[in-house]
Amino acid sequence: MTRSRITLPLLAGLVTLSLAASRPAASGYSYGYDEDPDHFGWAIISDGDTSMSDMDDLGSMDRLKAEFGDEFLFLRLGEARYVVRDRALMKRAKDAARPLQEAGREVGKAARAQAEDARANSWDARAQAKLALQVARLSKRIARLESRGESTEDLEREQERLERQVEDLSDDSDDSSDEGSGALKERARSARTEAATERLHKAVRRLNEELRDILHDAKSRHLAERVN
Q1: Which of these, 18, 22, 154, 166, could form a disulfide with 111 (CB 3.0-4.6 Å)?
Q2: What is the pLDDT of residue 36?
Q3: Which pLDDT value is given to residue 115?
Q4: What 3-state class would DSSP assign to 6?
């Protein structure tokens, strides 16, 4: 089955998501080529797996795969488009892309950690509300039984048990939201996210530089096939 992975737009989304969760709304990152005068872009196709710099050439990939197979490097420089199939140059491209993939995984982990914290806090709140409702219902039952002169010992023990659970959840919530502890966790998350994001930026820059060098090398050795 053919797989497809659009690398840079996905990683840009992860960076934006993770930073938006840990910083003011004004912060965020995205990738584009508005300041790139020659509009450089690329796609690495290997074993049917596609990694791309942007979406501009997505519509051409099926046609290029039909013509060149499932193992080639696509490079765009301005209006010119090239395909490189030399194995050594392909290996250079894939090796250069590896740090970008690793940095993307780190950013993804930071984003997932934020999401898991949010889900955990939400679950605690829902659990407390559910238990509080059960306690309220038991209180009504106890009041009715007492008005009839009936025993309520079992229900009172159940009520006490539920109230202890509510208190335990409340204590856990207080501990997790403690100002000092929360600030330390927030700073640690922010530091991890910023470090991963910086590695991502560097990986993008280095990959683009390496792929430009590969294109220059391929053209000089007549290994770059011009495509429409």
Answers
A1: 18
A2: 54
A3: 66
A4: coil
Show the DSSP H helices in 46-178 as ranges.
58-68, 87-147, 153-176
- DSSP annotation of 222: T
CA gap 67, 64 in Å, rounded: 5
Mean pLDDT, the chain cut into blocks of 10 residues (228 residues total): 42 37 32 54 88 83 92 94 96 92 81 68 72 75 71 83 77 55 67 77 89 96 94
Query: What is the pLDDT at residue 205?
Result: 87
Hunting for tokens 């950013």 — which residue is that? 107
DSSP state of 23: S
Amino acid sitting at position 144:
R
Q: How many residues does the chain have?
A: 228
Torsion angle in degrees (nearest 10) through CA of 6, 11, 16, 22: 150
Q: How many CB atoms lie within 10 A of CB 41?
A: 22
Give the chain's end-to-end CA distance (angstroms, integer).
Answer: 27
User: In this structure, what token pair is assigned to residue 166?
Assistant: 């509510």
Nearest by Cα to 23 from 216, 187, 217, 202: 187
Burial of residue 7 (number of CB atoms within 10 Å: 0-12, 13-18, 19+): buried
Sign of the Cα torsion 193, 194, 197, 202 reads negative
Best CA proximity match to 42, nearest among 100, 88, 2, 1: 100
For residues 15 and 30, give the distance between their C-alpha atoms in angstroms, rounded to a whole number.
8
The overall pTM is greater than 0.90? no
**Best CA proximity match to 215, nearest among 91, 88, 83:** 83
